[in-house]
Amino acid sequence: MKIESWKLMGDDGSGPYPLSRAGHADALNPLLKLHASHSFSISDIHSDVHGLWRYAAMLPLHSFENRVSFCEGFTPLIQESFGGTNLIFKLEYLFPSGSFKDRGATVAISQMKEQGVDCFVEDSSGNAGAALATYAAKAGMQCEIYISDRTSISKIKQLTWLGAKVVQVSGTREDVANAAQLRAKEIYYASHVFNPLFLAGTKTFAYEVWEQSKGSLPKEILFPVGNGTLLLGAWIGFEELRKAGLISFIPRLSAVQAQNCSPLLNGQYSYAATMAEGIAIQKPARKSQILEIIEQTAGSIISVSESDINEAWSWLSSKGYFVEKTSAVPLAGWIKIKKPENTLIPLTGHGLKSI
After folding, report:
1. pLDDT digits over 295-318, tens only?
2. Does 183 share its domain with 246?
3. For the chain, does the N or the C end have fewer beta carbons within 10 angstroms?
4. Which pLDDT score is estimated for 299?
5. Could you read off the pLDDT of 79-125 as tens digits, one per residue?
6. In whole angstroms, what is the distance from residue 219 CA to residue 316 CA?
7. Total number of domains in the chain
8. In which band, very low, low, confident or very high, does the pLDDT at 42 lie, cut at 50, 70 and 90?
9. Are residues 128 and 259 part of one domain?
10. Does residue 187 sit in the same domain as residue 204?
11. How far, CA to CA in Å, does 60 sit from each of 55, 131, 187, 346?
């Protein structure tokens, strides 16, 4: 892989770009992409490797020896029945740190290790910070994680126990990001939102769905969307599979948001408290990309109420799926819209995150 840009740089190339000067972060997105010199190939899958690093040939790491890994990935794909209708759950909460964000963290931290980075800053609603802190601890790196002072105590404890320096910021999620970006003038910015290495890891979600379903893809996937990391990564992965001639179509990629914070649907940046704290993002930095992907795949945008979320979460709990309430958002959307059978729903975060 040729890495064109793997951290935000200033105009003079001296350091992280201060996004507050950018007007809107979407203007920077063309700079934040990886350019693959190696297309997806079945023959390059390491079938003897468990987890997402079986796709190492398609990931941006020069030496396999530099990977920082817990053998994560290849999470179960489970058939489930809801009211007599078949659904597919992918258990993304069964990662070492308790969320799908480990996909991006293992790749980003591995590349950072290869580049000699020993300290970084990240801003997060909790799960991305925990994922990066988990892999930083394994790699022997120092990290500073900026979070909202409204973040659940369970996530704060997780970060602390992992050895991260936790900085709580009052205000909106955007205030948290701005504070971290000021710190990023001095140390590496590992942002799961802007750093394309993170998306290079999350694209393995699509690879796994393709391999586990033996090519018989679901027609639609419903994602809980704040900054849209998993939806964006999934699109990248499916597009690579399509270009390789391994799939004939990309599933409809749809976004589900809480009504209290649904900027994709209403185009406004209003916010009210929501139990789905993991997607409480007022101003998604890659909003235009998310909307473009939804349009290109004929997906949809759904918003759900707090009672919708709680109802879906209660049903999941009754079936043994112990997830945080953010993870129940896609199921709530499916129930509301009555999507077709065999819709895939990723369950993204562990229930221990919000106790």
Report:
1. 999 999 999 999 999 999 999 999
2. no
3. C
4. 96
5. 999 989 999 999 999 999 999 999 999 999 999 999 999 999 999 98
6. 22
7. 2
8. very high
9. no
10. no
11. 10, 18, 22, 25
pLDDT band at 268 (very low <50, low <70, confident <90, very high): low
pTM: 0.90
pLDDT at 25 over 80: no
Strand order in the sheet with 142-148: 165-169, 142-148, 119-123, 188-189
pLDDT, mean of residues 135-145:
98
CATH number of the domain within which 263 lies = 3.40.50.1100
H-helix segments, the chain = 102-115, 127-139, 153-161, 173-183, 196-202, 204-212, 229-243, 263-266, 287-296, 306-318, 329-337
Question: Which among 176, 194, 212 is the end of a domain?
Answer: 194
Amino acid residing at 133: A
Q: What helix, strand, coil percent values describe the chain, rounded to 5? A: 40, 15, 40
Side chain identity at 125, as an amino acid letter?
A: S
What is the Cα–Cα distance from 246 to 240, expressed in whole angstroms?
9
The residue type of 240 is: E
CB 144 within 8 A of CB 165: yes
Final residue of a structural domain among 194, 210, 238: 194
In sequence order, which residues have a C-beta less than 8 Å from that of residue 340 and are 6 or more positions away?
219, 220
d(CA 331, CA 256): 9
**221 secondary structure, DSSP code:** E
What is the spatial distance between Cα 193 and Cα 157, in angstroms, rounded to a whole number?
23
The 10s digit of each residue's pLDDT in 162-185 is 999 999 999 888 899 999 999 999
160 is in which domain, residue-wise? 101-194
Q: Which two tokens stand for residue 328?
A: 């129940």
Compute the average pLDDT of residues 63-78: 96
What is residue 103's three-state secondary structure?
helix
**Statement to judge: residues 89 and 110 lie in one domain:** no
End-to-end CA distance of the chain: 40
Which pLDDT value is given to residue 19?
28
Integer CA distances (angstroms), 316 to 43, 144, 206, 347, in order: 38, 34, 23, 10
